[in-house]
Amino acid sequence: MDGKTSIQYLQNYIRSKDHHPELVKDYFLKLSGEVGELAEAVRHGLVRGEGGGVKGTIDEEIWDCMYYLIALANCYDIDLEKTIAEKEAINNKKYNTGIEFEQNR
Predict the structure, then answer these.
(1) Alpha-carbon span 80 to 9, nearest angstrom
(2) Cβ contacts of residue 58 below 8 Å, gap of 6+?
(3) Distance between CA atoms of residues 47 and 57, nearest Å
(4) Residue 76: CA atoms inside 13 Å, Cβ hemisphere, count?
(5) Tell me, which fold does domain 7-78 have in CATH?
């Protein structure tokens, strides 16, 4: 990866291989399970060591959670890039962070 993977690419990638809106509840249950696995990995401090593989690490569980979050967004035809920008505008106004969210980055 070149460090420039967009949210839109991820949505399209996941949609192309795993898009079953009729299974939205199953995606949610899978997400819930992955959040539990992430909690366990964090609890045990399972960070990936230098040169180590992703299996069984916090890294793996974060991706699994992201995968199912994106799959859920796809089930509802949510444009995550648009939603992120809109929600960050609300958050920045509410919390006055002084840090502007830059789109198309």
Answers:
(1) 11
(2) 38, 41, 42, 46, 47, 48
(3) 5
(4) 13
(5) Helix Hairpins (1.10.287)
Answer yes or no: are the C-beta atoms of 72 and 31 closer than 8 Å.
yes
How far apart (Å, rounded) are the C-alpha atoms in residues 10 and 13? 5
Q: Residue 58's Cα: distance from chain center in Å?
A: 13
Chain-centroid distance, C-alpha 13: 13
pLDDT digits (tens, 9 = 90+) for 15-74: 999 999 999 999 999 999 999 999 999 999 999 988 889 999 999 999 999 999 999 999
- Enter the tokens of residue 79: 């444009």
